[in-house]
Each structure stands twice: as C-alpha cells, then as structure tokens.
Predict the 3D structure of the following.
Amino acid sequence: MWHMTSPILIDIPEEVIGFRVLLRPYRPEDAAALWEAIQESREHLAPWMPWVHDYHSLDVARAYVARARARWLLREDLAVGIFRRDGGFLGGSGLHRMNWTLRTFEIGY
C-alpha cells in the first residue's frame, strides 16, 4: 500500500536475493569490508566520487554505515551493499534524492 504522507510506513524488502548476489542495507559488520573496498579502489573512484576523500579511516566507514541504516529506516535514502551470496562484499548501490510524492529516485552505484 502506498503511504503518500508517510514514506516511513512503506514496506520495503530488506533483501533482494539474486542467483549470485544479495542486495541489502548495510549492517555494522559491513564497515570493514566497505573500508577495504574504498582503500583498494580509491585511485579509480576519486575522479568521479568526491566523497572518497572523506574516507580517511575505518571509523568514517563505521559512521557512514550507521547513518545509512538510520536513513534507510526513515526512508530518506536507500543505500545497499552488494554481496556475493557467500557473503563477500562486491560494492554498493542505492536509491537517492527521493521524491516520494512523484515516486522518483536517483540510482547510484
């Protein structure tokens, strides 16, 4: 059911399970894998992702994961981690800049 006045009431699946991958909101235990992925890809990400320069420690990744979870619950931003079905971290994506009235979102990855 669509809740035009209160997006927080919209039931959104916590997981999307594919044949080989799993998409789900970040959890606290994902921070280390996120940090490692950013470290490994920093040079490639930097030209297009200005936020990469803000990630200077594991604590920054932990704080991001906590904020991402809170924003998911409030339906302000739907950031997800992309994982192999066996649990390995592959990357991230999400729906951002949401307009619940128009039902429009920006897809980020």
The chain has a mean pLDDT of 92. The two ends are 28 Å apart (CA to CA). The helical segments are 31-45, 58-73. The beta strands are 16-17, 21-25, 78-84, 89-99, 104-108.
